[in-house]
Amino acid sequence: MLKVVEIFYSIQGEGTQVGVPSIFIRLHGCNLSCSFCDEELHKGAYEELSFEAVLERIQTYLSMNVIITGGEPTLYDLRDFIAFLQGHGYFVAVETNGFRFSHIANANWITYSPKEWNHIAQEGFHEVKFVVGKNAPLEKILEFKSDKPIFIQPQNESDKPNFENVAFCVEFVKKYPRFILSVQLHKFLGVE
């Protein structure tokens, strides 16, 4: 059984797969309490759903691209669920703060968004996303090296962009072009 907060259909607004129509499965809970969290739903009500019940719901959407998000999905060992979805033809991506990469090791795509920049993992993911505000300790990001895409994402409000942080991040990636800007396109478009 999975603790599911919501299932919805939208576009991916972040990272390498920006613009891809995707089915989002938001799971309950997180191991962190970030002051800048832009998604509080993971702390509230949830349904306990079987794999089959989740499949029944997502089959109503046209996309075969699933994104498991939270909160923090790796609180749960999701390997069997990921394999179940893949067995039905889905491409499965997971967004994680890196709590337990082993719980999602068989995902097709892993977006790693570290929140503790003193201990950034070096493997187990396909892309990295740093959520950055104008007062972020940028030296930690600058020290990080990877052959994977490294995104700088402005710290935004829960439902709209923070244009001060957006401008800061634009200047940052222009100064350090090995980084890529990811702006949370869905917030600019006003979609979920």
Folded structure, characterized:
This protein has 192 residues and is α/β, with parallel strands linked by helices. It has helices at 51-58, 79-87, 138-143, 163-175, 185-189; strands at 2-11, 21-27, 47-49, 65-69, 91-96, 109-112, 127-132, 150-154, 180-181. Strands 3-1-2-4-5-6-7-8-9 form a nine-stranded mixed β-sheet. It starts with a strand and ends with a helix. This is 7-carboxy-7-deazaguanine synthase. Its EC number is 4.3.99.3. Keywords: 4Fe-4S, Iron, Iron-sulfur, Lyase, Magnesium, Metal-binding, Queuosine biosynthesis, S-adenosyl-L-methionine. Substrate binds at residues 11-13, 26, 69.
Layout of helices and strands, plus pairs?
Elements: E1 2-11, E2 21-27, E3 47-49, H1 51-58, E4 65-69, H2 79-87, E5 91-96, E6 109-112, E7 127-132, H3 138-143, E8 150-154, H4 163-175, E9 180-181, H5 185-189
Main pleated-sheet profile: 9 strands, mixed
CATH H-tier superfamily = Aldolase class I
**Terminal Cα separation, in Å?**
25 Å
Helix and strand string, N-terminal first? EEEHEHEEEHEHEH
The global form is globular
Order of strands, main sheet, comes to 3-1-2-4-5-6-7-8-9
Strand % is 25-35%
Number of strands: 9
Family: Belongs to the radical SAM superfamily. 7-carboxy-7-deazaguanine synthase family.
Organism: Sulfurospirillum barnesii (strain ATCC 700032 / DSM 10660 / SES-3)
Catalytic activity: 6-carboxy-5,6,7,8-tetrahydropterin + H(+) = 7-carboxy-7-carbaguanine + NH4(+)
Cofactor: S-adenosyl-L-methionine; [4Fe-4S] cluster; Mg(2+)
